[in-house]
Every structure is written in structure tokens, then in C-alpha cells.
Amino acid sequence: MKKISALIILMTLFSFNAYAVLITSEGSAVIENGNVEKANNLALQNALMNGIAQYYQQSDKTNIPEITPEFFKFISYYRILKRGVDNFEVKYKVELNLDEVAISDLKYFLNNFLHSAVYNIKIQDNTTQSDFVNNSYLNKNISGVFKEYNFTTKHQQEFSLQIPQNPSFKDLITVFGMSKAKFLFFMKVSTEYTKLDENYICKLTLLTNIYKKDNSFPEIKSVASSLKNTKKEAFIGAFEKSLNNTLKYVRKNLIKLPETNLPTQEYQIVAKNFPSLGKIQKLMQSLKEKRIILDFKVISYSQSDMQMEIFSKFTRKDLINKINLYKDEYNFLTDISMNNIVLTFGEKM
Predict the structure, then answer these.
(1) How far is it, in rounded angstroms, from Cα 221 to Cα 223?
(2) Where is the signal peptide (predicted)?
(3) Domain carrying residue 9
(4) Bridge-based pairing state of the strands 340-345 and 332-337
């Protein structure tokens, strides 16, 4: 929580960005066990994350991730419009200034792009006991498999508490509609058990229907088997295999991730006629804070010229376009010379 608070404080120090969008949003948190400070920090964090989520909801972007505090790097600054406590709940209303240019390039910035999901499992035969499904060990493993494919199940507990014991499809859709999760995985399971010496083989068929708030995907079928000492262990093993196969197919064909694993590339930048060393350092630090570059180092330096090596996920063309966003603020022109990116300061277009 201290790290998040520090990130929030640092955001107030960022300068105004011409490529920005203003969002007004609200957030709240319940005061638990008298811990007002924790609720206060969480309410502010929720207000900021709700603002970022609102930006995506208003945009035409189709691949929207789970909003996490990692997105705070895209907030240039924010101001608190209103704060209050009502019925043991801290509430915030904030206005935040988002760096629209940076946030539009998520594939370059996010290390852990997540989609939120909730799930429900329905047994379709009488050979598998209900306690095989309703146990903490299986649910923990299910969350682990989802996590491997960049899905978070952080809303699962709340979802499970709100649905009745034997929910109908209508119950599931209704509760999902009120959930913060982006996807509902409705999984139907049928099993066959075979005794082999002292062990059991479970052949499991998993039919998965995936729903969004506004549409659905075709049903996915996966069949897997597992040999274990007990029926329960065999069921869990077979189910995990089937779920793994299903999610692998989902990520490859239905709900694709952005290209986050882009290679790091090295470029040479030559700065000419720069007014001061401090101005170059400030420009490079701004590019680094916005993750336009990952790092930089000075190779050579004279009174008016400097050669640097920089590291970036962007292609040369995209990198130059990003650097050009700062040309008016820092008064330079860009050019290419012998594969070097040249920044000539003090020149107007």
C-alpha cells in the first residue's frame, strides 16, 4: 500500500501534457476494523482506476485489460474534487489527466496484461461428487491455470457468494452482469471412471461457454484423462488438463493478448547544439518515465554535441514519432544520419 501511495504522490509532480484527456471519476472503500488510512488509500486508488476504466469505456478500443495500479504511470496528474466519509465508507471524486498518447500504446508498456474472469462449474452426470468441485484445493488450482493465461479471478469469491447454491443459467448471467469481471466461463463437466489395479482413471469432457457483457463465444470442447490414486485426485488432474487446453485455445483464437513480448532494440541518438546538459537529461528522463525508452547511456560528449545509446521496444519509425511529440517543448528537429537519430536543438520548422 505504501508503494501505491508513493506512486499516487509522484503523479502530482508530473507536468502538463498537451496530448492528454481529462476524466472525472469516483471511488470508495469500506472502513474495516477501524482502519481509516487503509480505506482512504484504497478509495483514492479505486477512484483513479475507475477513471482509467472510464477512458477505455468511452474509447473505441476492443481489447480492454483489467485495470491495475500499473496503469498509474499513464496519469500525468490528478486533483481531488471531493472527499468524504459516509456510513463507514470513504468516498473520493477526482479529476485525472491521462497521457492519451502513452496509454494508446499498451502493448509496449504492460508487463502483465490481465483480463478478469469468473467461472461456474456444473456436473452433468452422477459419477462425480459435488465436493470434488466445491473444494478450496481445486479452486486454487483453477485460479492458477487462469493466471498462466493472463486471466485474473480476483472477483470469483464475490461472484460465488452472490449466486444461489444451484444456480440457473439466468442466475449466473444476472450476477455476472453486476460483476466487475469481464468474462464468465460456464463450464459443464461429464466424467467416466475406470478402476486400474489400486488406481482410478478419470476421462473428463469439458464443455465451456464464454460470455462477455454484450456477446458470447462458440462452445469449446476439451477431453482429457488422468490416472491417480483416488477418484477425487483423478478428477482434479483431468479437469486441470482440460481447462489448460481450453484456455490455450481461447488465448490463441478467441481472446487474444496484445503483443507484449516485443524485442528490445538499440538505437544511437546524436544531440546537436543542445542548450544545456540538464535539458538533454530532462528529455531522456521524460521518455523513460513514459516508457518510450527503457534506458539510455552517454557514449560521447562535447560542449554542444552528445552521442547516446538508447533502448526501446518501439521500431525506429515509431520511436521517432514518439520523440517528435516533445519537439515543441524542447525546441528541436529530428533527422536520420548514418542510421543515427539526430536531434538538432534551437531550430524551428
Answers:
(1) 7
(2) 1-20
(3) 2-109
(4) antiparallel
> 189 vs 148, 230, 315, CA distance in Å?
21, 18, 46
Q: For the chain, how many structural domains are there in total?
A: 3
Distance CA 330, CA 311 (A): 21
- In the numeric block, which cell numbers belong to residue 104? 494508446
Based on the fold, state whether residues 16 and 48 are members of the same structural domain: yes
Strands 305-312 and 265-272: what pairing?
antiparallel
Lowest average pLDDT, out of 126-135, 287-296, 311-320, goes to 126-135
Q: Answer with the one of 109, 135, 165 that is the final residue of a domain.
A: 109
Distance CA 96, CA 46 (A): 12
- All three cell numbers of 339, joined, read 542510421
Look at residue 62 in the predicted model and tell me its pLDDT: 59
Could you give the CA distance from residue 310 to residue 211 in angstroms, rounded to a whole number?
A: 43
Comparing C-alpha atoms, which of 260, 244, 242 is closest to residue 313?
260
Mean local confidence (pLDDT), 182-207: 94
Task: Indicate the pTM of the whole model.
Answer: 0.61
Mean pLDDT rounded to a whole number for the chain: 85
Question: Of 225, 254, 283, which residue is a domain's last?
Answer: 254
